[in-house]
Design goal:
The protein is of the alpha/beta class. 28% of the residues lie in helices and 27% in strands. Bound molecules: zinc ion (2 copies).
Length: 349
């Protein structure tokens, strides 16, 4: 039996590269040769085996990784429209196709949702088995590395797109990869002024390179005074919350103008209290959570913009490593020295 290298989460808090059999496709599945795979905050949570990971319904052992791009090798029974050699990226939300939300065009919030690379083997391996519903054929003009980022880019892009940022003052909280992708998306979608907030100077520098008009470090600047000053004391039109920081969200919602929009993507580790009357009802704030990409209208938009170089996300990708150096990638990501780390499991240059 032919084997491949795979990063396997063997026991809680422990992962290692193992030689495992190259899998073959079952019904409705596609075998993909993984050219690029991106490390995500979710993978770090799993590797740490924190409280989120403990409650996430994981079954060990499994192959880590969910953000990826590669080439179709073969397809199983009942899969049509794909052939060997097609360049594909992977949607990580695996919908059931039959529940109330699936039948109403909202597969991304399927009631029976499972996640590729979390509830089933993922893509930190030379080959991955992917449910056909999650395969997205992408234009040749998008290279493998950018292709592997389309999943997280899509999350950020959709939150910004559905917040109607054209001509607006936009405040983006948190400059991790998702916040940075949101900065780039807001610029592409015609925001008037994009203000990026983070406590890390290096992250703010990437925010500048992806197009933020103003960089704010809340530990150094009185954000409230600044924002009220340049919005005639009305507040900002749109807040994109990508920090998961409860205090940042509580403070910033007071800087939202009446009738403004808050898009929530970050995940605070505990419940967050709001003054609902003052901060939401009387203001008519529109507060929406975003869980991933619409399947597949978000993908269509991101594909067109990426393949024509109109989404400036390159600076977010700080490290490209062979899969064998995954420990180094994880170390740099944990320290905040790396932003998005990409592995090349199939070993392409
Ligand atoms: Zn992810
Ligand atoms: Zn469903």
């Amino acid at each position: 039996m032919e084997t491949m290298n795979a990063l396997v989460n063997t026991t809680p808090g422990h992962a290692e590269i193992q030689r495992v059999p190259i899998p073959s496709c079952g019904k409705g599945e596609v075998l993909v040769r993984v050219q690029s795979a991106a490390l995500c905050g979710t993978d770090l949570h799993i590797l740490e085996w924190d409280s989120w990971a403990q409650g996430a319904g994981l079954r060990l052992p499994f192959i880590l990784g969910h953000e990826c791009c590669g080439d179709v090798v073969s397809t199983g029974e009942d899969v049509s429209g794909l052939r060997a050699g097609d360049k594909v990226a992977v949607e990580t939300h695996v919908p059931c196709g039959r529940c109330d939300r699936c039948l109403n065009g909202e597969q991304h919030i399927c009631h029976n949702l499972t996640l590729f690379g979390i509830h089933m083997n993922g893509c930190f391996a030379e080959y991955a088995i992917v449910p056909a519903i999650c395969i997205r054929k992408i234009p040749e003009a998008i290279d493998y590395d950018f292709g592997s980022l389309m999943e997280p880019i899509g999350t950020a892009f959709r939150a910004v797109f559905e917040s109607h940022v054209g001509g607006c003052n936009v405040l983006i909280l948190g400059c991790g990869p998702i916040g940075l992708f949101a900065v780039a998306s807001a610029k592409t979608l015609g925001a008037h002024q994009v203000t990026a907030c983070d406590v890390s100077a290096s992250r703010l520098d990437i925010a500048r390179r992806v197009g933020a008009d103003r960089l704010l470090n809340p530990q150094e600047t009185d954000i409230r005074a600044l924002i009220l000053n340049d919005t005639h004391s009305y507040g900002v039109d749109v807040i994109i919350e990508a920090s998961g920081n409860a205090a940042a969200l509580q403070e910033s919602i007071r800087l939202l103008r009446k009738g403004g929009t808050v898009a929530l993507i970050g995940l605070p580790g505990q419940p967050v209290a709001f003054d609902i009357g003052k901060d939401i009802v009387f203001k008519e704030a529109k507060v929406t959570g975003f869980h991933g990409r619409r399947m597949f209208s978000t993908w269509s938009r991101v594909e067109r913009l990426l393949s024509t170089n109109r989404l400036n996300v390159g600076p977010v990708m700080t490290h490209v490593l062979p899969l064998e150096q995954w420990r180094e990638g994880v170390r740099l990501a944990r320290l905040g020295e790396a932003c998005k780390v990409i592995f090349h499991p199939a070993g392409h240059a």
